[in-house]
Structure formats: C-alpha cells, structure tokens
Specification:
Length: 236
C-alpha cells in the first residue's frame, strides 16, 4: 500500500509538471503564430512550436492515464472504493518534502532489521505453517552482520556476502539444530536434505534477495546523493 501510494504521488507530481509544460507550450505556439502572421517568424519556427505542443499534449495524456492506473492499483489493495474525503486528499496532495529521506545513515545498522521486511516475514509464516522452528531457521540462514559502515555505505561484512564479479551469494547456512519439529524431519538430517524442502528454499531465497537489495541500495546511495545535489544546484 505504501509503495502504491508513493507511486501515485510521484506520478501526480509528474502530471503537474506536464500540465505546466503544456500550458507553456500553448502560449509559445500562440505567440509564434502571431509572429508568423506579422512576418517576423518563419513557417519552420511555427512547425517546431507545433511539434513541441503536440509532444506536451502526448506527455500530459500519458501521465493522466498513469495516475488513473495508480489510483486503481491503490483501490485494489485497499479492497474498497475510495471515500470522497480520501479521494479529495489524494487530488490535493502536495509534493513530498525534500527531507523525507534521511541524508545520512548511521553506521553499524544490524542485519536483524531485514527481518521486518514483508517478504521475509511471509517466508517465515510459510515455515511456521510447515511446523518449523523459526529461531533455528534464522540462526541457520540469517547472517548477523552490520549493514552499514562508518560512512553510511555498505559495510565490509555486507560486501563480503557477494562476490564482486558475479554478485553470487557466499553465505553458507550453519544448521546446528533441527529446523522442523514434531518429527517432520529426523534430527540427524544433513544440510543437503534440509535444503530440499521448498519452504527452506523459499526462505533462503527471500533472505538472499533482501541482502542483495540492501547492498545495491547502499552501493548507489553516494552517486544518488551527488545527482540530487546537482539537480538542486541546477534549479537554483
């Protein structure tokens, strides 16, 4: 729901920008038409102004359609129609503040934070449904490391989970306790047998994807900060 909402807000902002651009291009086309009629401009200038106007019209139509689709996606997730009040609030929503995302990340963020992710929580619920010991599963498959280093970027421990060339997962599960309880699996099964269970495979895949996404996000944070600063300087 949060992702759908932020997508809607972003596309609403883009729609607002295209509306402003369309209004500007309409004025420009009108002025160019007057200049051509007065003999102070050429048909080529008028054609260029018309192309810019038609492009702005196409962009406006595209973002109008996309914002409508985003709203429909939000309604689907909510499972009920938007109330008139909520619909009005969405239409009148202002741009998100620039400081909504923290500029710096503290060092030493624990990897246990990733256990809050919806995909990992869903995978753990599947394990619970298969009568598994979540504590043992986390101990076996969840690397307990620091996510961030001193500069707020990826820590050496996080980078070490992936090979720099192939981005391959290098963490080997350490199974010291029986994962499944109630006689579902014998306590003496080895790692290869346990990993054949689809619930375990999905759980491990979710953890790997979570760590990879965090590593990729931290790897791009510095360059994204530089892009943001450059954009702010251009606007000024």
């Amino acid at each position: 729901v949060a992702s759908a909402y932020l997508t809607l807000r972003a596309d609403q902002e883009l729609l607002r920008l295209t509306s402003d651009t369309l209004a500007t291009q309409k004025r420009s086309y009108g002025l160019t038409t007057q200049l051509v009629e007065a003999g102070n401009s050429t048909q080529l200038d008028l054609r260029r102004a018309e192309i810019a106007l038609r492009t702005a019209e196409a962009n406006h139509a595209a973002y109008t359609r996309q914002a409508a689709k985003d709203r429909n996606a939000l309604v689907l997730l909510l499972g009920q129609p938007l109330t008139p009040e909520l619909s009005r609030q969405l239409d009148e929503a202002m741009a998100l503040p620039d400081d909504i995302v923290p500029t710096g990340l503290p060092s030493g963020l624990p990897s246990e934070l990733l256990a809050r992710r919806p995909d990992i929580r869903a995978a753990e619920q599947m394990l619970i449904g298969a009568n598994a010991n979540i504590g043992a599963a986390r101990a076996a498959f969840f690397p307990m490391i620091s996510l961030t280093g001193s500069a707020g970027t990826a820590s050496a421990s996080l980078d070490g989970l992936f090979d720099s060339g192939s981005r391959a997962w290098s963490f080997l599960p350490q199974i010291t306790l029986p994962i499944f309880r109630g006689g579902a699996l014998r306590a003496n099964l080895d790692v290869a047998h346990v990993q054949k269970r689809i619930e375990i495979a999905n759980y491990e895949k979710s953890i790997q994807a979570a760590f990879a996404e965090v590593a990729d996000g931290l790897a791009g944070k510095r360059t994204l900060d530089e892009l943001l600063r450059a954009d702010l300087l251009i606007e000024r």
